Amino acid sequence: RAVPTARRPVVKFCHKQSGLVGDISIDNRLALLNTRFLRLCAEADKRVRLLVYALRLWAKRQGLAGNPSGSGPLLTNYALTLLVLFFLQTRSPPVLPTVTQLRDLAGDEDRAVVGGWDCSFPRDVAVLEPSANTQSPGSLLAEFFQVFGDFDFMGQVISLQEGRALPLPPQPLEPGEEGLKLGPLNLQDPFELSHNVAANVTEKTVVRFRRCCRDAAKYCRSLQYRHKSTKGRAWGLMRLFQPGAVEPGVANAGAYLISIPLDGGDDVQKLYWEPGGRGARFLEVCGAITFVLRDVLKCACAPRAPGEESRLPEEPAVGSKRHRPEAPN
Questions:
Q1: pLDDT tens profile 53-75
Q2: 298: enclosing H helix or E strand
Q3: What is the maximal distance between C-alpha atoms in the chain?
Q4: CATH class held by domain 28-170+178-203
């Protein structure tokens, strides 16, 4: 499928037998150098791949990333990867060097200028000094959520060249003059400095990303994150990677697992006999049904008018009989 309107025109394809997707682009040297840069970062420290894959999975489960078209309102995998690299550049001591530091380490054979942009960096990871940072991947993951849960995305530019957040640049005064396209999330490409790789992201997605980061940071401080559940429930990273609630209208919701604790006939009976039918289990079932109807099937679920009573069976008087339901379906 050709996408001629993309920033770099591509042909997208899918291998039916494996489900793998890919892009074909012609004469795009910047993309090749970006790929080599990501590979260098991954080889520089073994924690890089762990964090990138973990956060990609987390973001996909939360409905924040993984948009296959790359043109929707969600974070692309590339943008999320650059966020991880920037985060690792800003640790104390840093896990990864900045792009400027890499340029200073580049040899003559590593020099490259594409479209006027200096894309020089070492090709051999042996040139880099090992990081003095000894934090565990789990500690870095929790710290990532804490940092970006309160990050001012709109008020500054994330720069991998400098390894820090920069003030917003002045916008071009002349029509047609190229400048960084500012938006709710300003994430500068490592080499093509006029390209905001998150320019497609909406303010709603940024707000949700920050909120999900805050929730994840809070969970990483809880006992459920550090200790195995005595009730056999998901804990640690497994619980963190469970699908989250997707708000209406979010693209690429995908298949989400909705866990309702109804293990057998006894639990179904308990659900039925909760006083007034308004217990926690009942509300959880209602929430799951609402999610399927409204967000998956896109049905119009009209909210109840204020003061309107819900049409639930009235609780029988004390001493009266109520027929038990037949075998649960």
A1: 999 999 998 889 865 444 457 89
A2: none
A3: 91
A4: mainly alpha
